[in-house]
Design goal:
This protein has helices at 2-10, 43-46, 49-52, 119-122, 136-146, 169-173, 180-188, 216-225, 236-240; strands at residues 14-16, 35-41, 59-64, 71-73, 83-84, 88-89, 94-95, 98-99, 110-118, 133-134, 155-159, 177-178, 193-196, 228-231, 245-250, 260-262, 266-268. By secondary structure, the chain is of the alpha/beta class.
């Protein structure tokens, strides 16, 4: 059985959906400065032939916010009326060292059927207009055109085209996103997680007229539906190869009590 599984894996293509991390990458304003890497020990510092022979080592120090780069939001990341998923009051689980419930370490490795809705490609453009909001009927039409069905337990990924602007923070932060109706449609399908090649899944700056909330998906999917959000994905290769269905794998770091984690999602197709 093990050899059969290895043979099957060797026959598929692996798509790396993570964006590279670097100082100057796009970061949501509330998470700045967000990312810093410094080389702490250099090879020449440790090169002591009399003690270690020819070997030398180097190591660095990484400082970063949880919600930078390609990452997943834990269920404790957002609350609705100061209640987390399951009606948990924030004050009952929130400590200076993080959350005692619903932290990112509680997210099991995600292995699921993945679905890509390439909305930009379906519309015949490389990149959707700035701040364009994708409604439910366009997600439905895109799925029909791609001959793919979004099912319960899936990880739904939506391509706006903004992944190619990862080196241009100003343009990237004004990306397209998914409208409230699109978020509700995804939740109705019973997906396990959603993800997008933008900063938030939501359309930046769009306010829900009913609740008054910015980032509607964040106040709905996480605290009300228990659906994870994965942000800053690179979906270009999947779209180029028209891989609309695939096996999806992502494993958050076990950062105890944290509200999110860097993640390196993979698609096998």
């Amino acid at each position: 059985m093990t050899s059969e599984l290895i043979d099957r894996l060797s026959a598929v293509h692996v798509y790396d959906l993570e964006q590279p991390r670097f100082a100057g990458m796009p970061i949501y304003p509330s998470h700045k400065p967000g990312y810093h890497y410094a080389l702490h020990r250099r090879h020449r510092d440790a090169f002591k032939p009399a003690q270690n022979g020819q070997r030398s080592g180097a190591s660095g120090m990484l400082t970063m916010m949880e919600h930078t780069g390609t990452h997943i939001d834990a269920l404790c990341h957002q609350a609705c009326d100061l209640k987390l998923f399951g009606g948990v009051p924030v004050e009952s689980v929130e400590t200076a060292a993080g959350f005692t419930e619903l932290g990112v370490e509680r997210i099991a490795p995600i292995t699921a059927r993945g679905v890509l809705l390439d909305v930009a490609g379906w519309k015949g453009v490389a990149i959707l207009p700035s701040l364009y909001s994708i409604p439910a009927d366009e997600l439905v039409a895109c799925a029909q055109a791609q001959e793919v069905e979004v099912r319960a337990g899936d990880v739904l990924l939506v391509r706006t085209g903004y992944g190619v602007l990862w080196n241009d923070e100003a343009a990237y932060l004004d990306s397209a996103g998914v409208a409230k109706s699109g978020t509700l449609w995804a939740a109705e399908r019973g997906v396990a997680a959603v993800g997008c090649d933008n900063m938030s899944w939501d359309t930046p700056g769009e306010r829900d007229p009913e609740s008054g909330s910015l980032l509607f998906a964040h106040v709905y999917l996480l605290p009300k539906k228990g659906i994870y959000i994965i942000e800053n994905l690179n979906l270009e290769a999947l779209a180029r190869d028209r891989r609309y269905e695939f096996a999806f794998l992502a494993a958050p770091l076990k950062l105890t009590g944290a509200t999110g984690s860097p993640v390196r999602p993979l698609a096998f197709a």
